[in-house]
């Protein structure tokens, strides 16, 4: 028995209204997801700029400190973490509305242990980097820092469930060959009077610092995921500020325990560009290291420790070229080949990240298509 025409018409109208409501809801959801995606990319781009600009400037300023008469390794280590107070106003702005209702705060004792452990790890790491900058040309130093990728892939495999792919393995091999070429190149380096023994110390310290920093990044990612469990920018700032505070305290203890503080006044007076230039070099080195650290921690938080290390090596072609221009570093054929191999390894990492991103987007589109088809099936049943 057919329904009356009026009832059929009303049913069609109700179906159209239901379809329109579902389409509107899906469009709003799609716009929200796109807006969220764009905001994520803006944050990532901001972190990338901070990391690249901060790291390049800090490395060059650190070398300038030694070239113009600075000699205190503890002071060079101190400025790598002492700039954290400039982040306090930013922390106050972001901490007001950044509380998350879905997660519980970890215990204070747990956070204190994390900050102290990471701060002490940074102290040792920064000291090894200071030895590397003291005894190595900037170009060699920056190329050796690219081995962070290899070390980070190793630690990420065990700590962060990072998978090894052919492109990642290719990158590891290339970076290892690049570092080996730099080691062979030691005899032909223009090290400005640095003995071969000190060159080896600088070489090993830079490798050790790269390994330590890669371990630090992997442990950071593990802490964000398993312990802190928050998705706010204030979490990144907290980690940077408190860890830097502990690292700075460790450097102050080392500065006084070693007796280097007694020679700082003489070092300032004998600095090649004058007292004001001495202070400005140290201040801006501290500021640029903090900018770099915020960018790096932000990328660990938003993406992964492996990706942050990949972006860190993006400055690889820039720093050696700037070092040749400003510090007259020797760029021979062997070092140029090492740089090209390291860039090739970096591009392998980038291409693997592109494949992972493409795969995730394809899966998202399939799930959205399934949702739309499922909604259509419900409408037909109604």
TrEMBL record:
Family (UniProt): Belongs to the purine permeases (TC 2.A.7.14) family.
Organism: Citrus sinensis
Main localization, broad class: membrane
GO molecular function: purine nucleobase transmembrane transporter activity; purine nucleoside transmembrane transporter activity; transmembrane transporter activity
InterPro entries xrefs: EmrE-like, PUP_plant
Annotated signal peptide: none
Source domain of life: Eukaryota
One GO term describing the cellular component: membrane
Subcellular location: Membrane
Protein name: Probable purine permease
Residue spans crossing the bilayer: 40-62, 74-96, 108-129, 141-160, 167-186, 198-220, 241-258, 278-299, 306-327, 333-351
Topology class, membrane: Multi-pass membrane protein
Record's keyword terms, sorted: Membrane, Transmembrane, Transmembrane helix, Transport
Pfam families: PUNUT (PF16913)
């Amino acid at each position: 028995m057919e329904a009356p025409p009026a009832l059929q018409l009303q049913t069609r109208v109700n179906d159209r209204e239901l379809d329109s409501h579902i389409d509107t809801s899906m469009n709003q959801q799609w716009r929200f997801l796109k807006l969220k995606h764009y905001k994520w990319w803006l944050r990532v781009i901001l972190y990338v700029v901070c990391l690249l600009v901060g790291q390049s400037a800090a490395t060059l300023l650190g070398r300038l400190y030694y070239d113009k008469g600075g000699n205190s390794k503890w002071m060079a280590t101190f400025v790598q973490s002492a700039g954290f107070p400039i982040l306090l106003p930013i922390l106050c702005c972001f901490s007001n509305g950044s509380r998350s209702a879905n997660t519980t705060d970890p215990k204070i004792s747990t956070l204190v242990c994390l900050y102290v452990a990471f701060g002490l790890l940074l102290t040792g790491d920064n000291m090894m980097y200071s030895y590397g900058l003291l005894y190595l040309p900037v170009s060699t130093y920056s190329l050796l820092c690219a081995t962070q990728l290899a070390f980070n892939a190793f630690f990420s495999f065990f700590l962060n469930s990072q998978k090894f792919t052919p492109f990642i393995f290719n990158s590891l091999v290339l970076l290892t060959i690049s570092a080996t070429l730099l080691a062979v190149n030691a005899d032909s380096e223009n090290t400005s009077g640095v003995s071969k023994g000190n060159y080896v110390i600088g070489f090993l310290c830079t490798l050790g610092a790269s390994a330590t920093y890669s371990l630090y990044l992997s442990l950071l990612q593990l802490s964000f995921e398993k312990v802190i469990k928050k998705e706010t920018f204030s979490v990144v700032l907290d980690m940077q500020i408190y860890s830097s505070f502990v690292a700075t305290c460790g450097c102050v203890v080392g500065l006084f325990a070693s007796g280097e503080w007694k020679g700082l006044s003489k070092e300032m007076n004998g600095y090649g560009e004058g007292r004001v230039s001495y202070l400005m070099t140290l201040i801006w080195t501290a500021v640029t290291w903090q900018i770099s650290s915020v960018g790096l921690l932000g990328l660990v938080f938003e993406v992964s420790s492996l990706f942050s290390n990949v972006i860190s090596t993006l400055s690889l072609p820039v720093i050696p070229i700037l070092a040749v221009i400003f510090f007259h570093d020797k760029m021979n054929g062997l070092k140029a080949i090492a740089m090209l191999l390291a860039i090739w390894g970096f591009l392998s990492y980038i291409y693997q990240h592109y494949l992972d991103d493409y795969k995730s987007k394809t899966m998202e589109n399939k799930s959205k298509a399934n949702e739309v088809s499922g909604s259509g099936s419900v409408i037909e049943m109604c």
